[in-house]
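Q: I have 723 residues here and want to know how they pack in 3D. Can you give me a structure?
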Amino acid sequence: MNQEKIEIIDLRSIHRDIACSYLDEFIQIYESVFPDPIERENSEQWRRSFSEFSPSVTQVNIAIALNQEPNQETRVIGGFVFKHYRKSGWGLWTHLAVKLSHQGKGIDTRLIKYVADSLEILLFAETRDPEKYPDMDERRKAEEQIARFTGLGARKIDIPCLPELKEKQGYHSLLLCFPKKPDLEFIDKEYIAPFLLEFNEAISAGEPEPNADIIKITQDLPKEVKLKKLPAREIPVLTLKGESILKAASVCLHFVERKAKCSDSEPDRVFGSMELDLLNYQFQVNPPLISRHILGEGNPVKIIFPPSFQYTSEGRAEALICDQREKIVDGMLSMTEFKHSKIRIWHLTLSAQHSPLNEFEIIKLISLYDGRSEDTGPYVEPSGQDAASAKKKLANEIRFIHGNEELSIIGLISKLVANSPNCGGPSSRHEKLELKSGTIQLLLKNEETKTLLWNAIRARSKTEESSKNEQGSGNNPHEATRTVMAENGLPAKILQALSGITIGIFDFGETDFEEIVDTFEPSFEDGSVFIKFNRCTLLSIAQDDRAFETCRKTIGISPYLIIPHAVLIHNEELVLMAEEAIRSMQKKESSIRPVLNLGKLETAYNAAAEYLHSWYLPIIFNYPTETTLFKQGKKKRGSTQKHKIVQSQLVELQKQIEETWLLRRGIVGGFIASLLAFISATQGTQTILKILGIHDPSIQHVFGFIFFALVLVLSLIGLKFKK
């Protein structure tokens, strides 16, 4: 096969007749790539521009990509039209087109590099700012254009006040550039200022003087102007061309309510049989928890995602443009009550029946309660000085529309709880409900995706013997997964997307083979379902789930997942309550205050001990799956270690109480000793003075004080030795 040889030339550098021939070929390509005349520039202007060779004016240049295959005629396969600002040495992108048969082969990147290298300073471009277009179609077009520039290496030139000036002139555009070095972060002021003046002069329609605003901007420029990364565009792979590889996707958010008014009632008709089936014998008789279904499907909630958002990955600030800003889901509400501790866990399940959530939408919802590793969450109620910083996070920018009201996530759950019939819910005050964790359940639609995932799951656990057997049968999970990741096709991108959901990060596109294998190490082995705890998220991926199908229209997720998770959350909340009680009475050194607060110390100790021992639930489940899930959840979430730490804090509080009792006894003993010393000194002084025959009052007082002090010291010494 003949290897293509691509050459890029400047039309102005070759003979005029040949240049015109190449230009005609490029115009044909340009018109085929942009068939809509509204989107095209009049190509006749390019032909006329070749009569302009004066270095004193802005000049149109065209770089052409030629395909020079051996023994074949040279053909034009693409071109790049740009304006050369000769005074400042900058170039302005106007149009780029590559022949349809050669797109995706890096021709556009080579054209840009050629032009950028030929310029004295930099190549820049203008693009529409999607934030300035309320119309969704116009916004989408602007976002697609930004995504294209991002893929070609463009960076935003961050010039203060320039966007406002552009709006004033009737433009809604961003100024971009293509750095010659990809790690370039700043441009010197001395390069930017001349360009801004020349650029403004060119677009000012022959006005005699430069605009006063642009002069002020150039004067106020910092010494180095920052280049910012442009946001990439989300490209979901779990949903391609409107078709999802998922049969179902449910995200259940768990909210904690303390001091709930729990009521004794009959088992719920939805949860009842399954919940009792989960519990072992001793906890079936008098269950420590009871779950109730409140709202099922038919309760639509519209999720509004921000147009774009930022996240942090490996110290880098990244940005993403949302592929789909709105998603209508069913908001299904249920709860689990723990009658002894008076803790109630609310479960809000968000699930779209006909168009499952994609990977980006799921990770955005995870950020509502987590998102700490990429600084996208969790959601924080704006208040005081933290309001501005909290609002910038993705979690605080996600909004929900229920009825005609736009709400935050806490506003949504508070409204649903307050309006739910016969639930005994709290008032609409938001601080009573706190979002803690989430459970995600995914059902795969086809066998191919399941095989792909299960190979990745088994890739780590293969032994040498099984490896030989599997190699002989051509079914080695380790090598199969390695091959998939090396090919970097759609199957690899599906694994990366599922890994992003598993660990709750947006930067999953960088995940390699080793990281995939690490990510899909399950929390415990199960032949038909992948279950993993990652921080405060419980994820389940399977092809089928009978419990889910049974509760699909009521709870929206399998009760066999959310009930064990609720017990874990309940125990973690008790540990947190115990820690709060202990910290509220921490010992203050060199202070008598603990003696005065001994009653409060003992009350705090008793409360913390009750939280950590009496109400803290052990393993209450009957089946191995839920038992293992509970054990692994405690281990993976750090619950066991946290429980031990707070128990040690409780021991320290007990020591503090014992020391305070000793101090208190010492103070009382000292007081009694002082009183006895005073009585003894009074009686002893009178007796001794009578014997000595001393009647002078002043001598009597001095002698009485000395004798009192001596008796008091001997009494206290005696008390100390007694202790």
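Q: Anything worth noting?
A: The radius of gyration is 37 Å. The chain is about 45% helix and 20% strand.
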